[in-house]
């Protein structure tokens, strides 16, 4: 059954549910801590959150430190003595609630699942000192019924002149490779931005995409002349719930894993184009902390293009291609007598039409292919591909209502039953 046919079948139910969500009691008209700190509306930094505008990217690279708030300062003989604190604490909250329907009920589960909350988070996000700021997210996990550290990025940033051009430079301490990135073409902030946790998803994914919240990294970056961005970080395992990795740990990085990022941004055809590369090399113990390791080399190319199409409208396009080389000496050859290797290739493309800051429509395509491996994959190959469509409406800048539909042409190496995993996802997203 085609994507259009599936979408027609479920459209009526989704519209009714979206209307129900829209009459949820109105949240107070307050905006998150970055907006309170700067005194600017959310639309200054975001097209439709979490996508960043050019101003939003600049704000992040400068360490989240721009402020319009009255501050508490301590001075000695007219000179700053190191204390500069916003009078209003940089606190925010986020609530997501959702409905998920799959074309075929998954074994031993109930279909038409409601998550309340799908996600609930507190943020400490804003200026810490004159050149230091943070984005710290604490998220409630429904399954464990506990709060845990989610996406976190603490920065020091400053500016200088190199070759007569403005140059931003800084340090980042974070827990998710690509969370420090300022473009929406990398995994941490890429489309679909939010997705159901109860729906089936393809089993194969690059290692770098699964390390969020399980590592700690420190690195440096620079942005020269509003064009060239370069950054390098080193990551080490920091498993949640463990003081230190031990014999019971899984997927533990041996030593440190280097991460790189290089990008060029340039005005093109009345819009803004970014092209770049990022990647990571990781030697990983699949279990325990001794013995052989598996080596993962993730290398990606990415692109983002933003183009105004009307006084208040915008078209944004994102794309990425990642190649992962896997040397699986530990997983498939514990005695060292043979060498096993696989490859995984992932391509993503999405385009969003923004109708001002009130509505958006996105169409995305994804394709994963890789080496045949009967030991790793149920159907012998990791191949999956399909399309995702999403429509979003913002009655207020801090409230987003979305309908998303994902249709699979191939799922975990098979086409015959791929459509059983097609998923309708309806979400209400509040930030304040």
Report helical residue fraction: under 10%
Number of H- or I-type helical stretches? 4
How many strand units?
A: 19
Strand order of the largest sheet: 3-4-5-6-7-8-9-11-12-13-14-15-16-17-18-19
Radius of gyration from CA coordinates = 22 Å
The biggest beta sheet reads: 16 strands, antiparallel, barrel
Shape, principal axes of CA atoms: globular
Structural class of the secondary structure composition? mainly beta
- Straight-line N-to-C gap: 41 Å
Oligomeric category: single chain
Order of helix and strand elements from N to C terminus: HHHEEEEEEEEEEEEEEHEEEEE
List low-confidence stretches. Answer: 1-31
What fraction of residues sit in β-strands? over 45%
Average pLDDT rating: 86
Can you walk me through this structure?
The protein is built from four helices and 19 strands. It is mostly beta strands. The strands form two sheets. A 16-stranded antiparallel beta barrel has the order 3-4-5-6-7-8-9-11-12-13-14-15-16-17-18-19. Strands 1-2 form a two-stranded antiparallel ribbon. Strand 1 and strand 2 form a beta hairpin. 37% of the residues are buried.
What's the gist of this structure?
With 432 residues, the chain is mainly beta. It has 4 helices and 19 strands.
Labels describing this entry:
52% strand, 432 residues, disordered N terminus, 16-stranded antiparallel barrel, single chain, 19 strands
